[in-house]
Amino acid sequence: MSWPPKSPSGLIGAEIAGYKVERELGRGGMAVVYRARDLRLGRTVALKLLAPEYTRNDAFRRRFAQESRVAAAIDHPNIVPVFEAGEFDGLLYIAMCYVSGQDLRALIDSEVRLPVPVALRITAQLASALDAAHARELVHRDVKPGNVLIAKVVDSDHPEHVYLTDFGLAKKSLSLTGFTTAGEFVGTLDYVAPERIAGRPVDGRADLYSLACVVHEMLVGVPPFQREDHLELLWAHQYDPPPPLSKERPDVPAAVDDVLAKALAKAPGDRHGTCLEFVAALRCALAECSAPQRRTPTLVDVHA
Predict the structure, then answer these.
(1) What pTM value is reported for the model?
(2) Active-site residue identified among 103, 131, 142, 190
(3) Which CATH superfamily is domain 15-97 in?
(4) CATH C-level class of 101-302
(5) Is 142 a residue of the active site?
(6) How confident is the model over 72-85, as pLDDT tens digits?
(7) Which residues pair with 204 in a beta bridge?
(8) Across-strand partners of 34?
(9) 198 Cβ contact list (under 8 Å, min separation 6)
């Protein structure tokens, strides 16, 4: 099987490990994701195919198999279920639940700044998913808007159902750094924790840092650090203080700046202990812990 496919339609109609490829959903440096039909069970899945160079790396293949089993074992409402993972015709693949909706990247691009209640609800669901993964020593390492899926729902009490995806490419071992054995950086620079840049061991607090970057972007429209080139951006994550969010978003209390500054601390030990602790601090900073309950905007309101 040739790789990468020369066009988005290159594998359309092909049968891979019992899945018939229907259309391309997205691609990156490591993989291409397709919508496919499970020919055995008759369901629609998201089928991720990894580039062949990873298949040829024995250490990566072993780690891939181990981490896929761990990811598939996590039963959490905000983590995309992994159905199957394996190797077919020289390609590693992961079959996951297909989520109908849009990703957070598309939502931010269309709305720029999300209503505070919407951003908080999305953050709480992501935090719950990450803490569940961290409890199994699974570190995501690439928390970003493109890996956050927002499903279409009709329940007015829960207007957004959020899924965190791409756990099949996470790195389980807490001793691994942010780089592969080939020197390739795993992750997205806008959201990367300082300890990963420095090549130090990471744990769930690296994901917390990335989550805080995503929260900043949901509320302001851009990640906390904006620089001209990659080296300047890496330097900013390691040494520059995060900009006060309240200066760009006047309807957000200044207390939120302190919460984000703690989550974005350069040293992991200076951050919140868990992602849900971060959410609790955000809620109190926004006075939700004591303010009277009022109807809050939903994504339906955003698009009205």
Answers:
(1) 0.84
(2) 142
(3) Phosphorylase Kinase; domain 1 (3.30.200.20)
(4) mainly alpha
(5) yes
(6) 888 899 999 999 99
(7) none
(8) 24, 47
(9) 238
